[in-house]
Amino acid sequence: MALEQRSSGGSILRALRVVEAVAAAGDGVTAKAIARRLGSPLPTIYRVLGILVEEGYLVRLHGVRGYGLGYRIAELHRDLTEQVVPPAAVRMILQEVHGGARAATYLAVFRDLDVVVAHLDHCTEHPGPNGMRIGEPTPSHATAGGKVLLAGLEPTRLGEVLAYSRLPRLTSRTVADRRALDRELMRVRSAGAAVEVEEYQRGVAGIAVPVRGPGGEVAGALGVSVSRAEFTARRWELEHAVRNGAGRVARSIVVLPGAAAQP
Question: Where is the signal peptide (predicted)?
């Protein structure tokens, strides 16, 4: 039984590695190229590819004689996004904050131990930070919205979240030391707002405030992101915009997506 379990686990892992290899290579990658990339026998790769194509996770692209990601992958991403996407009324408020503040505007929530972007309203004139995408995790210690959510946790749960994330240093300004982060979170609790300046991405800064739930708990964080130069010039204007927006969001909803799974 143990041997069968190891064999099954190895097959699953191999299939996942094949999907990752196709995603990294892009449309048209061949079975031989995948086999070389993964160091696996070609017959094994052909067998895995056949199963993945049959199940919709990959497609066979006959025009280029290779493989590409299947549409089932897109379906899974949509399913994931729908787990955290806020109601239409909340998305409209974020859109209005974006337009009024002239800044990319986002809502962050907890999904178990991860801080996830529930919604991001931006445009070419007011782009969001690189790597910040709807439905995907964002570094809790390096973003203003993440720090707001961390500041709302009880000490034990805060320790669990930080042990899980491990505080990677993303820029020279990232707060990657636990004691320094604890001091920063104290300032966030006192001010009722979190600021990040080039901690997540060089040249980018932002501010976020809590979105309170019915019982006063921190149910989410509403933040904006702009260039560092613009933040220096408009800091108080941006804070007023996010505080006003967060209050409107809190009044428009009962429970944010992901709130039931919050730490």
Answer: none
Q: C-alpha distances in angstroms, 192 versus 22, 195, 209, 221? A: 45, 10, 6, 11
DSSP 8-state symbol, 65: T
Spatial separation of the C-alpha atoms in residues 65 and 86, rounded to whole Å: 41
Cα separation, 204 vs 240, whole angstroms: 19
- Give the span between the Cα atoms of 51 and 64, in whole angstroms: 20
CA 250 – CA 252 distance, rounded (Å): 6
CA distance 146 to 121: 17
Closest to 184 measured CA to CA, from 176, 108, 116: 176
The pLDDT confidence band at residue 215, using thresholds 50, 70 and 90, is: confident
Residue 63 CB burial class (10 angstroms; 0-12, 13-18, ≥19)? exposed
pTM exceeds cut of 0.85: no
Burial grade of 210 (CB within 10 A; 0-12, 13-18, 19 or more): buried
Residue-wise pLDDT for 13-38, tens only, equals 999 999 999 999 999 999 999 999 99
